Amino acid sequence: MKHLLGTEGLSAKTATAVLNTADNLKRTLLGREVHKLPTLRGRTVVTMFYENSTRTRASFEIAGKWMSADVVNVSASGSSVGKGESLRDTALTLSAAGADCVVIRHPASGAAQRLAHWLHAEGTAVVNAGDGMHEHPTQALLDAATLRERLGPLDGRRVAIVGDVLHSRVARSNVHLLSTLGAEVVLVAPPTLLPVGVASWPVAVSHTLDAELPSLDAIMMLRVQAERMHGGFFPSAREYSITYGLSEARQAMLPEHAVVLHPGPMLRGMEIASAVADSPRAAITEQVHNGVHVRMAVLYHLLAGEEATP
Amino acid sequence: MTALLIKGVRPYGEGDPVDMLVRDGVLSEIGPNLAADGMRMLDAAGLVALPGFVDLHTHLREPGREDAETIESGSRAAALGGYTAVFAMANTDPVTDNAVIAEHVWRRGQAIGLVDVHPVGAVTVGLDGAKLAELGTMAASAAAVRMFSDDGYCVDDPLIMRRALEYSVALDAVIAQHAEEPRLTAGAQAHEGERAARLGLAGWPPSAEETIVARDCLLAEHAGGRLHICHVSSAGTVEVLRWAKDRRDVWVSAEVTPHHLLLTDERLTSYDPVNKVNPPLRTAADVKALRSALADGAIDCVATDHAPHAPQDKDCEWSQAKPGMLGLQTALSIVVETMQVAGLLDWRGVARVMSERPAEIAGLADHGRPLEVGEPANLALVDPDARWTVRGEQLASVAGNTPYDGMELMARVVGTVLRGRVTAGQERIAG
Fold first, then answer.
1. Per the CB < 8 Å rule, is A197 touching B319?
2. A185 shares its domain with A142
């Protein structure tokens, strides 16, 4: 693996290797007082976040630090980016300053791929931490890690992704990764929040959440962003919540073993009832916890090479 | 003006090679083995002669963005592409929404002398779609503007569009519409379909074009004005055009770009903004429909939408990048590949869509004329067997944003003659 730009095209073999590494790292660190491995000592990881983010950025930073990499955070507002510097120049500058890996979040779809193109000659690894509406591969990997913990192998498991698929990079990355790992994916959303062209995706599509619930092994609720509520994608927040929200009554229609996921941040009472988010079948804090190990594993596979052991 | 003898050329690629004698800017004799008598000779052995091309849709960027193109560099690109007349779109800075700018563009083009640069006037002041620009003053100016367009933006207000179509009747002018319902394309980045869905790019639905074309055809019928549809991109628009052209009282014409005849949204997977263009590259089915529409006349002509952009406006994130691509020097090759070699048009057909129809639409009396004695010597000389590799930095434009960079194309313009003056291919002249 040279870069991690998306889960589309990521082989089952590579994805499983990263997930296994994440499991190993988690086990290794379990119960330890000092969360630190020397593996990436002397390597420099730069995070470039052009969008607000708390959890993803912190997660990458912690992951890098637990692997003993030097982690430098560049934020769009506090740097020359604010002075109008182009993404290309910023990337080349950071690479020239010694970055071995650049972790980027950017509002433009494809930004990570463009970055990898510009940094091709430098050999700097690029990790996509979310590009526009395109992909957020480490989120999908941490979701898969969480589901594997709860359910075992994902082969043949049925997972629903519910909500604003149209604008969601989390949904796209999960669709590719889950189907690569053998799971059946069903997208549940009003037609206005599904992309034109979704018919070619390796998924089933439904507009009726209640009909899907009894057959699910896991359900992933997507956040409904405030701007969508005013964008005419559905008549009202109330109608959305009634039709597509995961209420306690709906949770009761899920099989006993089914897992509830949410990539966060949650809008309690909108797409997910507060009691559901706090229920034992919700794996939301596990997702965050696993995020650190998955990102450690990604940095490891990019920077330490496949043959080394963590 | 001294005489020029064009040796061994095949007009429209038909019959045996002949010589064409050009005197005082006019084709004065056509026949085999004309006497040279020490006059300048242009070796045209193996070449096809076509009437000089007319581009209804060019962005020359001057005034305002001379770091991307100038009237001079764009004129050179046009001449090298076989063009003898181009229409320079109004979205310059300042906008060509008045006679002063229009006359400047016209005179600058004439002073350079490589191609007739006809300014297109804006339909509305500042292209803002709210208030009609002084169409009459521009029409009466030295630039004699006969085509008006807010290209880059759609004249989306139906009342403004109706008034423009009505008012233009008195000017014998044509209103060229950039058909894009802006409410349906807010933030749009790519053809709305499978590819954009996967790439996470906001979709530009074909219906945003088709609804405006249908509306404007009805408005043109009602107002009695002449409507021209810029850069048709979808199969649905072709259907609408066929319907409108069947109606007796609609005067509508349409153009298609070379890139919409060749490229599809498959290009987008690299996120390289050199492929970003408005309207966007669509599907293989659209390409097929556009080719047959051009062949059977539902679409009248080819126009380049030549759109140079400075490197910093292209070497960036997709959503940041400006839409548009170079087209003047590659148009003929793309038309040959997609239409002539494909058997959809013969050379007469190429002459029709590249020269004759656009000249008619724009009301140019001295371009797009038959290759006959007594006609103006406006010629494109094409090497039909050439193979050449496109290199953006080698094109005459200031900018290098060609989507064909590194591609091998077939057929090439190797000489252009404007009223008897050789504007490209001077190296072939002897004597």
1. no
2. yes
| Six token digits for residue B323 | 């839409």
For residue A87, give the nearest of B201, B270, B316 by CB distance.
B316
Name the nearest CA neighbour of A258 among A280, A236, A274, A229: A280
Is residue B371 one of the residues assigned to a domain?
no
Is B168 a member of any domain?
Answer: yes
ipTM confidence:
0.93
Helices (H), ranges, chain A: 12-29, 55-66, 87-96, 111-118, 137-151, 169-180, 209-212, 226-229, 237-244, 248-251, 274-277, 284-303
B137: left (phi over 0), alpha (psi -120 to 50) or beta: alpha
State the residue range of the domain holding A239.
137-287
Of A87, A169, A200, the CB nearest to B200: A169
Mark whether A24 and A151 lie in a shared domain: no
* Closest-approach residue (CA) in chain B for A86: B316
Please indicate, yes or no, whether residues A141 and A258 belong to a single structural domain of this protein: yes
Q: Report the number of distinct structural domains present in chain A.
A: 2
Q: Please compute the mean of the pLDDT values over residues B233-258 and round it to a whole number.
A: 96
Domain annotation covers residue A2: no
In this structure, are B380 and B339 located in the same domain?
Answer: no
Chain A positions touching B313 (Cβ under 8 A) are none
The pLDDT of residue B129: 97
- Mark yes or no for CB contact A134/B195 under 8 Å: no
B126 shares its domain with B15: no
Structure tokens at B239: 């259907």
Chain B residue with minimum CA distance to A9: B198
Residues B270 and B316 in one domain: yes
CATH number of the domain that residue A122 is part of: 3.40.50.1370
Write down the pLDDT at residue A83.
67
Q: For the segment B1-27, what is each residue's pLDDT rounded down to a tens digit?
A: 579 999 999 999 999 999 999 999 999
Q: In this complex, do B198 and A8 lie within 8 Å of one another by their Cβ atoms?
A: yes
Residue of chain A whose alpha carbon sits nearest to that of B194: A197
Q: Do B201 and A131 touch (CB under 8 A)?
A: no
SS (H, E, C) A128-195: EEEECCCECHHHHHHHHHHHHHHHCCCCCCEEEEECCCCCCHHHHHHHHHHHHCCCEEEEECCHHHCC
pLDDT digits (tens, 9 = 90+) for A243-280: 999 999 999 999 999 999 999 899 999 999 999 999 99
Selected catalytic residue, list B116, B156, B286, B305: B305
Say what the pTM is: 0.95
Q: Do A109 and B320 touch (CB under 8 A)?
A: no
pLDDT tens per residue across span A19-38: 999 999 999 998 888 889 99
Question: Using CB atoms, which residue from A109, A117, A200 is nearest to B200?
Answer: A109
Active site residue B286: no
For testing the chain A interface, which of B195, B269, B271 should be mutated: the one with the most A CBs within 10 Å?
B271
- For B:202-221, CB contacts with A below 8 A are 202-203, 205
CB-based burial label for A288 (10 Å; 0-12, 13-18, 19+): middle
Query: In this structure, is residue B146 part of a structural domain?
Result: yes
Same domain as B175, residue B287: yes
Interval B332-347 mean pLDDT: 97
Which domain does B384 fall in, by range? 4-48+376-430
Same domain, A122 and A164: no
Overall average pLDDT of the A126-139 stretch? 97
Please indicate, yes or no, if residue B368 is contained in any of the structural domains: no
Q: Is there a contact between B200 and A132 if contact means CB atoms under 8 Å apart?
A: yes
Are B21 and B89 in a shared domain? Answer: no
